Amino acid sequence: MVYPYYEKLAGLAPGMNRGNFGLWYNKLVPLNDFHECNASDAKGDENKAVTYYEQQYGNTVKGAAVREFLDEKHSAQTGFCAALSARYEIVTIRAELISPLVTGIGESHPHEVSMVFDHNMGIPYIPASGVKGIVRFAHTLSLLANLPEEKVKRDKDGKKVFDDEADWTDIPELFGTHKKREEKRGKVVFLDAYPEKVPDLYVDIMNPHYGQYYSDDTNKQPPGDYLDPKPIKFLTVARGTVFVFRALVDREITGLVDKVKVAFNKALTEEGVGAKTAVGYGYFDILGGDGTRGNQPDPEKDLEKRLSEFEKSLPNSHDLPGQITPIIERIKAQEDERLRRKMAAVLLALARSDKKKFKKAKSKGKAWVQRLVEVCQETGVEV
Fold first, then answer.
1. What's the pLDDT at 334?
2. Which of 300, 284, 296, 306 is nearest to 237 (CA)?
3. Global pTM value
4. The domain containing residue 370 runs over which residues?
5. Average confidence (pLDDT) over 73-90
6. DSSP string, 152-169
7. Residue 124 sits in the same domain as residue 202
């Protein structure tokens, strides 16, 4: 086990229990191999690196200092908004995570999966650029869902084209423009979103089965059930964490505030924030001023919507055997027991659509059929 910095600092790093965890995470993590830059715990075990990070985070943020800094950050944002309230209307949304949040998964780090931390406090947060991106995405999706035919344009090849920066979309007013025309600044200012209290971190795991296939630049390695899965642990922000989202909306434009609130609602409760939203990460419940949940989608409608999206994403029955492992992982990742059961039933129905092929594969004990049977038994679906 080695540390990629001078000896005196290396002696302090393992016992660090004060200061900025984000600094430690990005600068002081131990490695078990200097040349390969493989992250590890303090004893050089690369399989326990993420658990070690989670423990270090708990030791670092348990004091009063980080809590005080976070309170000051919220006070500063509140004061900033108040100072501009003559021109801007303030939008403040408190939202509670109902599934773990993954942020900064693509950041550079010795460990394969990273996380983004506030530079000064060392706790997870959602940068303003990310907040703006998800709100714009949600607003755009709502336009596509009810797109009038007269707003659809076609390119030179006759293919349909959606101009998301056309004036009628309100995107130029809300978010600004940056291409194909004169740049225009949006009328909404988004602030970084911070947790209301110092959040807990949670160690999660993904288990890709076709790592050798995806990493093969020669295109000679096909995906197959015989490949070895490679479990990858990563940090998430724990469910139950309450984040505060703030935005300032120019008062000169009538109706923008309502559009921003609707887009925020859709972004947080329907589309999700951060990475891996397709498998259930990063979803929120909006909280009212008294802390109760409000403006959340109907549970039954939400279940049917997720089931419909799952069904549409499935391959045809011919390609199912080679793709069934990540599909089953997606089913198991769902927190709702009824949704898992319904998804398993849909997957079984797809496999049985070619009765002869399914019966033959089952009689031969094919691995993909065995996995399907296992997930059906786990969810209570009769095979």
1. 76
2. 284
3. 0.68
4. 302-379
5. 92
6. -EE-TTS-EE--TTSGGG
7. yes
